[in-house]
Write a structure and sequence with these properties.
CATH architecture: 4-Layer Sandwich
Strand order of the largest sheet: 4-5-3-2-15-13-11
Number of helices: 5
Structural class: alpha+beta
CATH topology: Deoxyribonuclease I, Chain A
Strand content: 25-35%
Order of helices and strands: EEHEHEEEEEHEHEHEEEEE
Distance between the termini: 28 Å
Number of domains: 1
CATH superfamily: Endonuclease/exonuclease/phosphatase
Length: about 300
C-alpha cells in the first residue's frame, strides 16, 4: 500500500543550513532553462538527472563534481527533480547544498540506505507530498532488491503524489526510474511494468515520468511502448526546445543531436512550454557523466 504521510524516506535529519557557493566567471552553460522572474505562477520546473554515483576516482570524483552540481541546481531552482544513481551520503550532500526548503523521498535499491536511489527532490514551498511508494523492476516488484529478468543491476522506481500549493492544491504524480544498462529484454519487461503501474494510478491526475532509460528516444521499442501506454514525450510536445545533445557524455566532448536516453514523459493533458538539455559546466567540469533534461510545464 502507498504511504499516506508527508514524512519522507530520507533516512536522516534535515540539514539546517546550505553551504555558500561562488560560481567562477568562466562557468559555461551552453543550453540552460534557468528560472525566469516573469514565469506564470502555475508553471512547474521539472528536471530529470542521472547524478553519477559518488566516487573517489579522479578526475571526476564526487568531491570535484559536488560544487558544480550545487551551482547548477541553485541556478535552475527546479520544483521537482527525479534523480538516478545517487548514493545515500551523496543525496545528503545535495540536500545540504540546496536551499533549506528542499526535501526528498527515496530508498536504496538494495533496501534502506544501501546502493543507488531513485530519489525525488522537491521544493517544499511549492509542493507537498501526499503519498509515495517504491517498486522493483522485476517479476516480483514488491520484493526489495529483486532482479528476476537478468538485468546487470537491481533496478527500481519511486513514485510520489504531490499537491501543488501554487495551483489551488491540484494533485499530480511523479514516477522516477532507471532502466537496465545492458539487457534489452530487462528494459522491455521494466517498461511494461512501469506502464502497468502508471495505469494503476489515479487516471484523473496528471503524471510525469522522469528517468534514465538507457536507450535512445524514438529508436527503441522501450520508448515506443511507453508512448503506446498513453504517455507523451515532453521533448516532442514542447512549444520550444533548446539545442539537442546526447544526454550521456561520459566526460567526453558533447555530441550535438546525439542520443537522448534521459526522458521526461507525461500524460497528454500536460502542457510543456520549453524543453532543454542543460550543458552547464564550470571550467570544463560537468556535474555528472549525464546532462540533465529539463522542462517547464503546466499541468493542463
Amino acid at each position: 500500500m502507498p504511504h499516506r504521510s508527508r514524512v519522507t524516506r530520507r533516512l536522516g535529519l534535515k540539514t539546517a543550513l546550505a553551504a555558500a557557493v561562488t560560481v567562477p566567471a568562466s562557468s559555461t552553460a551552453l543550453s540552460v532553462s534557468a528560472a525566469s522572474a516573469d514565469e506564470p505562477r502555475r508553471t512547474l520546473r521539472v528536471m530529470s538527472f542521472n547524478l553519477r554515483f559518488a566516487s573517489t576516482a579522479e578526475p571526476h570524483s564526487w568531491t570535484v563534481r559536488r560544487p558544480v552540481l550545487r551551482a547548477l541546481l541553485r541556478r535552475e531552482r527546479p520544483h521537482v527533480i527525479g534523480t538516478q544513481e545517487g548514493l545515500y551520503q551523496q543525496l545528503r550532500d545535495i540536500e545540504a547544498d540546496l536551499a533549506p526548503h528542499y526535501d526528498w523521498i527515496g530508498t536504496g535499491r538494495a533496501g534502506g540506505s544501501r546502493d543507488e536511489f531513485m530519489a525525488v527532490f522537491y521544493d517544499t514551498r511549492r509542493l507537498a507530498p501526499v503519498a509515495y511508494d517504491h517498486f522493483w523492476l522485476s517479476g516480483t516488484p514488491e520484493v526489495i532488491a529483486s532482479n528476476t529478468w537478468g538485468g546487470a543491476s537491481i533496478r527500481m522506481a519511486t513514485w510520489v503524489r504531490f499537491r501543488d500549493l501554487a495551483d489551488a492544491g491540484r494533485e499530480f504524480h511523479v514516477l522516477d526510474t532507471h532502466l537496465d544498462n545492458r539487457s534489452q529484454s530487462a528494459r522491455l519487461e521494466a517498461a511494461a511494468l512501469v506502464a502497468r503501474r502508471v495505469g494503476a494510478l489515479d487516471p484523473a491526475l496528471p503524471l510525469l515520468v522522469t528517468g534514465d532509460f538507457n536507450v535512445a528516444a524514438h529508436r527503441n521499442p522501450v520508448h515506443a511502448g511507453l508512448l503506446a501506454a498513453g504517455l507523451v514525450d515532453t521533448w516532442d510536445t514542447a512549444a520550444e526546445r533548446g539545442p539537442l545533445y546526447g544526454t550521456f557524455h561520459g566526460y567526453r566532448p558533447l555530441v550535438p543531436d546525439g542520443d537522448r536516453i534521459d526522458w521526461i514523459l507525461a500524460t497528454p493533458g500536460v502542457v510543456t512550454h520549453r524543453a532543454s538539455v542543460n550543458t552547464f559546466a564550470v571550467e570544463g567540469q560537468f556535474p555528472s557523466d549525464h546532462l540533465p533534461v529539463q522542462v517547464t510545464l503546466t499541468l493542463g
